[in-house]
């Protein structure tokens, strides 16, 4: 954690060389609109989950080039002095609109729209993508697990399987998607995510016997604690646990073996010993499929590690940040798009709505806004005549998806994490039933461009 | 990057509750030895690469509980006051041995051995695993790509596809494994990794024509720059590029399409235009397999993004941190091991050697050290009679793998990153030929426990 506080160098070298050349050509100060979107959802997923928005806003406020950063760039000869002068005074002064955190998204959804000069907007590409790609990948996987778990709570416990700072963001993203708590203390400290945990196998091995270990845990963590029962022999451990704790033991945890079979055995044993209120928690290489397969087993809670922090097979959301419109020499904002084979982009500033029928999502409506003089269109969709303003009345039967996050460089879209979590609950509840199939398939609703 | 400077909360809740209960039972101060190892290599890989060792040493020095951390733990009621008192005075005072950074490893290799009281060693589990699991996953994938690329250089450019801080560590790990440079500026600033990059499609789209964009780039970044030629039409772009830059153009980059076919076309065009020295760089969803498939194509360099930062299908190295020995009530260090189904551990402190025949690695020799009085064995393998000291003469035909990293809480194993990079080059060169098959198979050398 020797990371300096400015986020400005969490950036690709080429953003700065592009800036240098564009300052040279004069094009750097052209108005430019960049859009974050996914070309497709990974692995035939039915929907994605926007996460990291709040972290982008935090990072944007830290995105300044201080003396140390400038000195590094000078010493490493990354860019010339004119560019260093520009960077020393850099402060994003444009606008950002985006899908609110926790919202579901689909291929082509304009998840975030950054509107400023080319110079100020291009510099943000790497950082914005890093945050949204990581956090959305975790939230998208987590949401499927939450759905598979039904009413049963899930603890996120994958910190040890991912980069130490990514672990904190992963805990936050999983919480947005509906996980109940995390093992990660920093996520508790920074984001208020509830933290949980009791003991590992090492605690049992440390003591002279499992009996001694359980006794110590009960003495100092209380009867409501969770005892880990698979260090040696599960049946023996369960008997010892209830013998020492009595029928009010909080929970037992199983971390290995055929979890379905062992959960049944342990539940029967607990009931037979009178510990009918003692919960059974299972952990150990769980993902959404394993959780779904345990739906009929007597399990009261899950702990998920590796699979959630690594996006369950899709560790990045594959979001891209593409220039979709820029000012021409006449001062008009014009759509632009590349034509690269297999990776075309769709030009033009966009706004987006979700069409609903009887409360069920039916369509992701993405409207390309017309060309307009730059002076008439300070933010995407906000003042061009006839096009809908984000947050203003949406077309009948739809709700607007873009909301202001930054205005004139000032963050306006910050919200408590609980709101993102509640928004996700509502957004996912609105999806058609097919959205919850775990098998690969098409996006739950089609994206229609107009 | 609102991350506070102490690494102490990058830790799982249960490490602290275990500490609380062990302080209660008195077992917290027993001498304990934890070992980091992999039960298996992911996806039938032939070898793994240790990376992150240097970052572990940095993090260890930051691992202290300051007032802010203690106050959070008190407010969140994570542990009791006695435990908070212990944490407030916490400073790791034990020993750490480990494989040197860049070294290859195999299933069961004791990559890192942490030796201290249970209290001080258990707290480090999450942080050590986070760092080693992430960095080793990236380095292990990167090493395969470097081998597939032969003499051709690879730029790491995946920052945007992973968490913003993980991106920095990924750039560092890929460099250890032999990548030539990174797009990530922070990795340049923090670790001295060479940075590289010129322009994206947005730069071309920003200008009124590709001609204008190329001219601007050449004017301000110089003729030796790399022009991106697939924004519109590759053949037209190559002609424009050479027309503007002349035959001394540094390179062209292709980011889409059938890279093999396009590379041939572009090479032919460049040669036809007299630009025989202009390099062809390819990027776009490359992994070790795609790189290998381009071996016969006229390519001069690769840029790799998503696949390297996400471990090319194995985003975590699945390393675990297990208690393998601890002091008993009589003051003797005894092996301990769990017997969980499918996840057994192998008790006892260990040391490790690589057996070589004619300079080729043939075996990973892991020796379990005998029980011994705690007073006679301050560090694993160092003073127990008859067992080899790390760094001391190894058995004939072997070289020792464990080296001191921390002694009595003081870091002694820090080294320049270039040494880890060079060590990896030498370590991988020593492996038998089969190690370089990209297809799934057994570990390149067997691990033998004695």
UniProtKB/TrEMBL annotation, chains A, B:
Chain segments carrying region Disordered: 370-401
Catalysis performed (reactions): 5-phospho-alpha-D-ribose 1-diphosphate + nicotinate + ATP + H2O = nicotinate beta-D-ribonucleotide + ADP + phosphate + diphosphate
Which residues belong to any copy of the Nicotinate phosphoribosyltransferase N-terminal domain? 9-133
Q: Quick check: keyword Aminoacyl-tRNA synthetase in the entry?
A: no
Q: Compositional bias of type Low complexity: which residue ranges? A: 377-386
State the Pfam families in the record: NAPRTase_N
Concerning InterPro entries, the annotation shows:
Aldolase_TIM (IPR013785), NAPRTase_N (IPR040727), Nic_PRibTrfase-Fam (IPR007229), Nic_PRibTrfase_pncB (IPR006405), Nicotinate_pribotase-like_C (IPR036068)
Q: Record's PANTHER family?
A: NICOTINATE PHOSPHORIBOSYLTRANSFERASE, NICOTINATE PHOSPHORIBOSYLTRANSFERASE PNCB1
User: In its UniProt entry, what is this protein called?
Assistant: Nicotinate phosphoribosyltransferase
Organism, per UniProt?
Sphaerisporangium rubeum
